[in-house]
Amino acid sequence: MKPEISVVLPIYNEEPVLPILYQRLEKVLSENFKIYEVLLVDDGSTDNSLTLIKEFCHQNTAYKYISFSRNFGHQKALLAGLRHASGDTIVLMDSDLQDPPELIPQLYNKLKEGYQLVYAKRSIRKGESFFKKVTAKLFYRILNLFAPIEIPLDTGDFRIISRKFADALKKLPEKNIFLRGQMAWLGFKNTYLLYERDPRYAGKTKYPLKTLLWFAFNGITSFSNFPLQIASFLGLLFSLVAFFIMLYAFYSKFILNQVVTGWTSIMVSSMFIGGIQLLCIGIIGEYISRIANDVRNRPDYIIEETNLNTHYPCKCGTE
Ligand code: UDP
Ligand code: MG
User: Fold this and answer.
1) Which of 55, 219, 310, 315 is the most exposed place for a label (fewest CB within 10 A)?
2) Which atom of ligand 1 is nearest to the CA of 43?
3) Ligand 1 centre and the CA of 186: distance in Å?
């Protein structure tokens, strides 16, 4: 029989959190659902997470695991879970207990009111640094400024989706995954539930500034061609300015009979334009590298071990 609900949890070095997560999650699921399934996706953890994960799966057959051959990143881990989830509804959530498992029944009930997607929206974020809150706020706003579709503000990946939604999502072929964006792009009837985001139970964030910036950059370039358009716009603007400077140069040479002596100004302007050109080439390069990624068509991740009844090695990307 199909599970009523599948819960997908990406796990990267969460050893201290896992026992409590298991307890809280198991309590919520067993009290509220008849048949459920939990997919624990180990994203190449280097601590004892995988051993613990295997123990849970041993104790409880509702728990399945997928273990990657290395760290492929949070989004890929979610994707793997999504692809293998067999439930009627699928919950995506972090495994550090920042997303409280106790919210799952509410999300489920809301979805059953006739939505295909219900996302959990953070009303407050506890236990996170001022810097993290500001960068997160900025991230969502900048993203929406650039992206042609509206991506909900202040929501992470904590959400529940219906089977219909998951099947549509699995059909998207692109390699640069940014699930929040892709889900917004899909449409369907959706709504949100407000919740208070708890502090991380233990350990520290796996999203240091470098990763966060990369994530933001990926989000923007996967969802908008605006950076490419900036390149053309700047190009146009500077050619126009250059044209007027040229007119002025002719004017001063032939009418005013003054030879232009400004070596500095020429240097400065040529450097400036050189800089803009490099910038534009860089942006174009970025998009081309994305095309190259799609053309290479490498699998999204490699599964090293799993207790799912799937082919090994998995037919990643084709499922
Ligand atoms: N995570 C992962 N792979 C990574 C980084 C993070 O699977 O490369 C998982 C991590 O274990 C957690 C979730 O993704 O369950 C969110 O990560 P984290 O809590 O570090 O991010 P933050 O909440 O600080 O944005
Ligand atoms: Mg977290």
Assistant:
1) 315
2) 7
3) 24
The better pLDDT of the pair 38, 185 is held by 38
What residues are neighbours of ligand 2 (ion), with CB under 5 Å?
A: 94, 96, 98, 200
135 lines ligand 1 (CB under 6 A): no
CB 63 within 8 A of CB 136: no
DSSP state of 253: I
The 10s digit of each residue's pLDDT in 79-104 is 999 999 999 999 999 998 888 999 99
173 CA to centre of ligand 2 in angstroms: 28
Q: Which of 12, 125, 218 gets mutated to test ligand 1 (max ligand atoms within 8 A of its CB)? A: 12
The answer on pLDDT for 279 being more than 80 is no
State the ligand closest to the CA atom of 98: 2
- Which residue owns the Cα nearest ligand 1 atom 17? 206
Spatial contact of 272 and 226, defined as CB atoms under 8 Å apart: no
Q: Is 118 left (phi over 0), alpha (psi -120 to 50) or beta?
A: beta
Q: Which residues of 45-61 are buried (b: 16+ CB within 10 A; e: fewer)?
A: beeebbebbbebbeeee
* Rounded Cα distance, 27 and 201, in Å: 17
Whether residue 95 has its Cβ less than 6 Å from ligand 1: yes
What residues does 57 pair with on adjacent strands? none
Instruction: For ligand 1, say whether the CB of 215 is within 6 Å of any of its atoms.
Output: no
DSSP summary character for residue 254: I
101 upstream amide cis, omega within 30 of 0: no
How many angstroms separate the CA atoms of 293 and 289, rounded? 6
Beta strands in 69-205 (DSSP E): 89-92, 117-125, 155-162, 190-197
Neighbours of 294 (CB within 10 A): 12
Architecture of domain 5-223+301-306: Alpha-Beta Complex (3.90)
Tracing tokens 């126009």 back to the chain, one arrives at 240
Predicted local distance difference test score (pLDDT) of residue 259: 64
